[in-house]
Automatic annotation (TrEMBL):
Keywords: Endonuclease, Hydrolase, Nuclease. InterPro entries: Endo/exonu/phosph_ase_sf, Endo/exonuclease/phosphatase, GPI-anchor_lipid_remodeler. This is Endonuclease/exonuclease/phosphatase family protein. It comes from the Bacteria. Residues 23-251 form the Endonuclease/exonuclease/phosphatase domain. One of its GO terms (molecular function) is endonuclease activity. The lineage of its organism: Bacteria, Pseudomonadati, Pseudomonadota, Gammaproteobacteria, Salinisphaerales.
Length: 272
């Protein structure tokens, strides 16, 4: 979980460590699609390395600076297309984060190491990777817990399936995994709208809060659909939520500022 020791960037939270800046982003392995035809014309960049992807990855690293916990989807953990570099380790180093974790969900050997990434300014005391159910294998979740076992912030990074049936199974699995956690954040590309999430029976029963104001993230060049979300438990007050104007993928990043209860903030602060 721990990258090389790199000095942290400027502190983005107040002296009491009561607020957290969260970012969720489907980064499309740095390909940077900006119009529909590029799914064809730039499709080769999903297989072969290119300087344009490296340049775009640097811009993504700049985007991460100033946030506290980042969840990334569609990353490459080290294959031919990424010049055998772990993109999450590279981004963490560039943006000044000390802690990172990768989950490879589709291991295609030298062709692709496709998965999820978690980057944090805080040291978690527990991190687990979980495979999620569904008709097609290759979906998963990283679950990290920060603070102390008796007073923890649980962060889930995931990328859900396209099909509604598989998504429902995956949401039910995630809700079961965090059922005993009081303070929870789920962030990722859910491939569905906030309305669909609100209607999901497992999420509804969990008491988790789906931010229901319009946050269109896809496609990045003309966003019409809000399919990237940060879901929170009721004890985390949402101070601000927005889509960032950063066309670095076919998705736009989602940012959320949350305020932590005092005891939770005190538990997390020593682990920075």
């Amino acid at each position: 979980m721990n990258s090389p020791n790199i000095p942290a960037a400027a502190d983005p939270v107040d002296a009491g460590a009561e607020t957290l800046s969260l970012l969720s982003f489907n980064m499309q392995v740095g390909v940077g699609t900006r119009r529909y035809r590029e799914y064809v014309t730039r499709g080769w960049r999903h297989v072969l390395p290119s300087q344009q992807v490296r340049d775009n990855l640097e811009r993504i690293g700049e985007l991460l600076v100033g946030h506290d916990i980042v969840g990334l989807q569609e990353i490459d953990a080290g294959s031919r297309r990424s010049r055998y570099e772990n993109q999450i380790e590279q981004l963490a180093a560039q943006a000044g984060f000390d802690y990172w974790r990768v989950q490879v969900n589709r291991n295609l050997g030298r062709v692709a190491q496709h998965g999820l990434g978690l980057i944090s300014r805080f040291a978690p005391f527990d991190v687990n990777e979980h495979k999620l159910p569904g008709r097609v294998r290759g979906r998963g979740a990283i679950i990290a817990r920060f603070g102390r076992p008796e007073q923890a912030l649980t962060v889930v990074v995931t990328h859900l399936a396209l099909g509604a049936g598989s998504r429902a199974q995956q949401l039910a699995a995630i809700c079961a995994l965090v059922a005993d956690d009081e303070h929870v954040v789920i962030m990722g590309d859910t491939n569905c709208s906030a309305t669909a999430l609100i209607a999901d029976p497992a999420l509804a029963a969990s008491g988790l809060h789906v931010y229901d104001r319009p946050l269109a993230t896809f496609p990045s060049w003309r966003p019409r659909r809000g399919i990237d979300h940060i879901i929170t438990s009721s004890g985390l007050a949402i101070e601000h939520a927005s889509v960032l104007d950063a066309t670095l993928s076919d998705h736009l990043p989602v940012h959320m500022q949350v305020r932590l209860p005092g005891e939770l903030a005190a538990a997390i602060k020593p682990y920075r």
